[in-house]
Amino acid sequence: MTFKAYLISDCHYDINNQYSLTSLKKTIKEIQVRDDFDAIFIAGDICNSPKHEHYVAFEQEFNGVSSKPIYAIAGNHDDLEQMKRSFSHISTDNKVETAENVDFILMDSSKKPYETMPLGAGRVSQRDIKALSQISKTSIILVHHPIFAVGNDTFQTLGIENRSQLVDEVLNNEHIRYILCGHGHYFIQINRGHVTQYMSPSSCYGFDHSMDKLEKTSLKGFLSIEIQNDELTVEKIDL
């Protein structure tokens, strides 16, 4: 049996910005055409402004998509508590089990750093980090910020404050096999030890990571993910 899902990230949805509305509608249309999936995952930076009316409107965009479940995590632009209050159908659960005996661990990295870091950086709670040692079956971490450092130097300053501790916990547990993340607005795959990390493109706009500073590009997309026999296959779909 196969578990198939789509991952979209960094929608930066804004009811006052027509480009963001059009971009999300195009993404949803591409998913509807396929119509062969078990779930949709949203990897944070859902709305540019974390307000109730934006989250409600965002959720309504998916009304005609499917009866399949939708799961979301918060990004640095989001407010997780506001998401929980605003969403009625999109789930913010922190764990999703699949029929393939693989778990998705939905991790929150949207907390503000304790130290002074550039806007866009995040932090993972000690509770969530320590919980990684208790994972005892094949698992995929879904988190907004990359756990393994990728991208240009500027982008890496916008990462997780306690990244080194998080990396150690991930690499110390052989059951954690994959990481799915966003934040970088660009598809990057990296392997460290037994773990493969996939960074999703944005459904709204891209970033050029070949330069010293982050410049926006028109490149955008989402990911198709498939689990079969404990193995994850990822395909980038351009928009």
UniProtKB/TrEMBL annotation:
Domain of life, per lineage: Bacteria
Name of the protein: Calcineurin-like phosphoesterase domain-containing protein
Keywords per UniProt: Hydrolase, Iron, Metal-binding
Pfam short name (any one): Metallophos
Family note: Belongs to the cyclic nucleotide phosphodiesterase class-III family.
GO MF: hydrolase activity; metal ion binding
InterPro entries membership: Calcineurin-like_PHP (IPR004843), CNP_phosphodiesterase-III (IPR050884), Metallo-depent_PP-like (IPR029052)
Gene3D superfamilies listed in its UniProt record: 3.60.21.10
